[in-house]
Design a protein that fits this description.
69% of the residues lie in helices and 0% in strands. It is mainly α and 54 residues long. The longest helix has 37 residues. The radius of gyration is 21 Å and the shape is rod-shaped. Keywords: Membrane, Transmembrane, Transmembrane helix.
């Protein structure tokens, strides 16, 4: 049947995809940590009050 064949992976392509995925995870965790550390301070600095305003 057409469309059901298993693709062959080029090792360079697999390495590139893995590198991009790892970079995305590192950035996600890194920016999340920075937001937790500096988020409340920046909200107070920019808005002048609580970040949980209702």
């Amino acid at each position: 049947m057409p469309g059901l064949e298993i693709p062959t992976w080029d090792p360079e392509t697999a390495l590139l995809i893995g590198t991009i995925l790892l970079e995305a995870i590192v950035l996600y965790v890194g920016y999340g940590g920075l937001e937790r550390l500096f988020g409340p301070y920046l909200m107070n600095l920019l808005v002048g009050g609580e970040s949980n305003a209702q």
